[in-house]
Design brief:
The structure is a homodimer. Chain A has 14 helices and 9 strands. By secondary structure, chain A is α/β, with parallel strands linked by helices. Chain A has a 6-stranded parallel beta sheet with strand order 3-2-1-4-5-6, sandwiched between helices. In chain A, helix 8 crosses helix 11, helix 8 packs parallel to helix 13 and helix 11 runs antiparallel to helix 12. The mean pLDDT of chain A is 96. Chains A and B meet through helix 8, helix 9, helix 10, helix 11 and helix 12 of A and helix 8, helix 9, helix 10, helix 11 and helix 12 of B.
Chain lengths: 306, 306
Amino acid sequence: MTTNKLRIAFVGLGSMGLGMAKNLLAKGHAVIGVDMNPDAGAALRASGGQTAASPRAAAAQADALVLVVVNAAQVEQVLFGAEGAVGALPQGRVVMQCATVPPGFSTALGERLAAAGHPLLDAPLSGGRARADTGELTVMSSGTPQAYAQAEAILDAVAAKVYRLGDAPGIGSLVKTVNQLLAGVHIAAAAEAMALGTKAGADPRALYEVISNSAGNSWMFTNRVPHMLDGDFTPLSAVDIFVKDLGLVLDTGREVKQPLPLAAAAHQMFLMATAAGWGKMDDAAVVKIYEQMGAFSVAERAGKRA
Amino acid sequence: MTTNKLRIAFVGLGSMGLGMAKNLLAKGHAVIGVDMNPDAGAALRASGGQTAASPRAAAAQADALVLVVVNAAQVEQVLFGAEGAVGALPQGRVVMQCATVPPGFSTALGERLAAAGHPLLDAPLSGGRARADTGELTVMSSGTPQAYAQAEAILDAVAAKVYRLGDAPGIGSLVKTVNQLLAGVHIAAAAEAMALGTKAGADPRALYEVISNSAGNSWMFTNRVPHMLDGDFTPLSAVDIFVKDLGLVLDTGREVKQPLPLAAAAHQMFLMATAAGWGKMDDAAVVKIYEQMGAFSVAERAGKRA
């Protein structure tokens, strides 16, 4: 715990970033936000934050820079692009990077930022928008003691649980990558299981009740199958997130020469779903590929769709 | 609940059957056991049970016949083989069949037994040896009210939870089959995830700690990864069980024309493990295939193997 009030440059006010920024404001920190979406900036200002036109402008005089963007390309742009923060952020100040990125990218980023005079906290998040809003995220992190010391007040404000996985940037991203391997495989497997059971004549709701109390259960099965039963694919996390994250998983496997046949099969299912035009839907919409292949509907059998 | 004391013919005194039979004895029922392994019969007699030389001999004058054998071929043999129980079991008495078998086999078996004058309770089990020993199994069952009424005292003695999934034999086996799809995929995915993380440089025990508290968790991940970390493949459930059960899953998908790419990939991993000579090891030994492919050892990195 710390009573330091920081001036925080915060890039990426999306579904998770905005909630995090609000929790930082609530703890008395100053937040200077940057997002391409003007509504996100307006929402931050309405909560007492400030906004800036570019990462460079936000980073000037900041005590810390937090990135909650989508992927490695955006991280690159925010830090080293034309209006990038590096160069403007005062020497010695921490960069806390929260996007899910390739572990190797994080390792290299740590070296590049060290050369520019900044410690990197490799800090991918888990918990989704709901936990971001309540300040109860899980952080899978790695970095030097110096990076942690500078980020401590930020972690206090946004996270319920911080896993400290080592001194080297990259391990935090690796553990998040492994988590996404399992999350993606489990969502696709949940869809596959519900498809087989329903097609072969089981009542989908009874199937859900039994499996979610049996050895076949997973966190994702319990959480996502209700979306399938209701045919409600309002995006909480989208199909395209898993197209990206399982892609990252497979890239990592390729890099270290580790074959990943289940992740590869699951990635193909999410690719099929985005190819079918369902990329922006909730990731549970991967079940629609199984339904299409099998010519039936889980939700219809569950009594939800006409 | 019932105070009826039954005379129960019980075929299959293996890792689950013996515990179940002992719980039946403890409730005051008479149990006449049959198993090819003389040690199993001796263990039953030591607990106050009787044994018979054949299913036919055990079934004569029995109130119910319970089968806890390995697969459909054994069920066929026990019921309809040369020394089979059908014909000897008194008319009208229930057959409770607990093996994991193809759902279509169970459906057909229900019709064949009905023609022979016996109701069938389709009653696959979940919970493993530990729950069998404590009388706390989960039963995924279907059958007529008549079948349930006759099996009630048996279910009371062996199960903590009985899912009643319908009147028709086959649905119980189908739900168990779907559970096995997920269980098998989740074990292989757990191995794949531990392999990727370890190969890429994460500490395997830290990885286990983080994932088992995150959205990537599954019942199987929590339960089986400790075997991988310890390199201890003492069989609780064997690789060959999943070679069989995922085979059943794929047969069922073929029968109803539902493609199952994740189950197919997982099945290949278990086939590789049995091809490598590890079929009798604990199912968590599927990780050894990933280790072999990746030329490393999870347990060694976890500090367990030299």
